[in-house]
């Protein structure tokens, strides 16, 4: 299930756009806020205590390294990890920079999954709105259906590949704590960006607050 569920999450996001044809990605902002809060809470409740219990004095460096890595990746992904993909002009070529940056992000987030079932749930919840936003972007940018499906399929494989690598590759096993700390940095950057970005309208902000509190409480219970 660690391998299948992330792939299914991407498929669900794609099918949602195809079946319901949402006009704007803004319509799923609350879902995105829930996923960001849930992922942040799981990181704080589950991953942080684990890496600091290792007594590795360099954990903070690896966490900051993860934050800086995510900032670097966003030079190429333009913030797709937290719902910011913009159409500049119609395009028909495969978006390699976007794919590579998102793939690195997804591969790394798969590393700690095999030891944390609740984290798997958080990543799945996060992937569905991201898949919706990516699909909307591809449609609005007039990418071919072939390129859209190819991108989403290959992208969906990256998190399972990260999980497989964490279980089978000796080097990653030996440096699992350090790799998890890097992933923590990535999650902290992505989730806080989702939560702290400005929103228009007080009603939406109130709804967002309720969703964030609920997501945090649910993560605590798990």
SSE map:
Elements (H helix, E strand, L loop, with lengths): L3 H17 L8 H24 L6 H19 L18 H14 L7 H24 L4 H24 L1 H5 L1 H21 L5 H20 L1
What does this protein structure show overall?
With 222 residues, this protein is mainly α. It has one domain (4-17, 32-80, 93-221). 76% of the residues lie in helices and 0% in strands. It is built from 9 helices and no strands. The chain is globular, with a radius of gyration of 17 Å. The two termini are 18 Å apart. The mean pLDDT is 86.
By oligomeric state, this entry counts as single chain
Give the number of helices.
9
In angstroms, what is the radius of gyration?
17 Å
Beta-strand residue fraction: under 5%
Structural class: mainly alpha
Low-confidence stretches: none
Q: Helix and strand string, N-terminal first?
A: HHHHHHHHH
What is the mean predicted local confidence, pLDDT?
86
Helix content: over 70%
Give the domain tally: 1
The biggest beta sheet reads:
none
Give the N-to-C terminal Cα separation: 18 Å
Shape: globular
According to DSSP, the number of beta strands is: 0
Keywords:
mainly alpha, 222 residues
Brief account:
This protein is mostly helical and 222 residues long.
């Amino acid at each position: 299930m660690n391998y299948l569920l992330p792939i299914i999450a991407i498929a669900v996001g794609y099918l949602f756009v195809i079946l319901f044809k949402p006009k704007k990605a803004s319509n799923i902002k609350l879902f995105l806020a829930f996923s960001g809060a849930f992922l942040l809470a799981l990181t704080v409740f589950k991953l942080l205590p684990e890496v600091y219990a290792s007594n590795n004095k360099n954990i903070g460096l690896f966490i900051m390294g993860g934050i800086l890595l995510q900032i670097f990746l966003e030079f190429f992904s333009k913030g797709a990890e937290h719902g910011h993909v913009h159409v500049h002009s119609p395009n028909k070529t495969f978006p390699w920079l976007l794919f590579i940056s998102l793939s690195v992000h997804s591969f790394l987030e798969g590393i700690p999954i095999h030891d944390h079932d609740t984290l798997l749930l958080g990543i799945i919840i996060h992937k569905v709105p991201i898949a919706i936003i990516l699909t909307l972007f591809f449609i609005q940018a007039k990418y071919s259906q072939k390129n859209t499906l190819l991108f989403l399929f290959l992208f969906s494989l990256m998190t399972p590949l990260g999980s497989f690598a964490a279980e089978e590759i000796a080097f990653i096993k030996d440096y699992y704590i350090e790799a998890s700390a890097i992933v923590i940095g990535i999650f902290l950057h992505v989730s806080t960006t989702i939560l702290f970005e400005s929103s228009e309208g007080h009603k939406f902000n109130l709804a967002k607050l309720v969703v964030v509190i609920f997501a945090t409480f649910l993560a605590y219970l798990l």
